[in-house]
Amino acid sequence: MPDATRAEAGGGGAAYPLVRMASDEDLPAVARMRAHWTGAEPGDDAGFDRRLADWWQRQGSERVLWVALADDGPAGMANLAVFERMPRPNRPVSRWGYLANLWVEPAYRRQRIGLALVDRVVGWSSEQSLDRVVLNPSEMSMSLYRSRGFRPAGDLLRLDLRLDLRPDLRQQL
What we know:
The protein is an alpha+beta fold. It has a single domain, classed as 3-Layer(aba) Sandwich (Aminopeptidase). The chain has helices at about 25-40, 50-60, 115-125, 140-145, and strands at about 5, 20, 65-70, 75-85, 95-105, 135. The chain has a six-stranded mixed β-sheet, sandwiched between helices. The longest helix has 15 residues, at about 115-125. It is globular and about 50 Å long. The model is unreliable at about 5-15 (pLDDT under 50).
């Protein structure tokens, strides 16, 4: 399995940006992109880089992280949490992925980087024989995911455990 791909897509012949699996050396760039995503500036939270590195170490083999590269370094990222279902009699092992934290730096948007990241995550998931990939898209990303075959899944329910996330209880806070 290659750890980096640069593919052609859409019949136009234009090359995708290089997307490769992230390494520990990429964590500072991942931290920078995550800070940008949340509206923070790198350095606003002195302990953030360490917390992100600790989180990454705890993930072990249950999460895969990719970075998309532009000429001057990482321009986007995505990760996939891999879940293995409890075994069932007379059935093969079943695994699925949750695509999370796909981010493209604003200066690099509309340059096929998001598309390249989605395609790499889906390609890797297929190579690993995952049954499906699910995600919780933002409104802005919906067309990207739909262009790659993602569709609504009406069979999920959600319960927010933090009271500040529950719209039915916000007035009581």
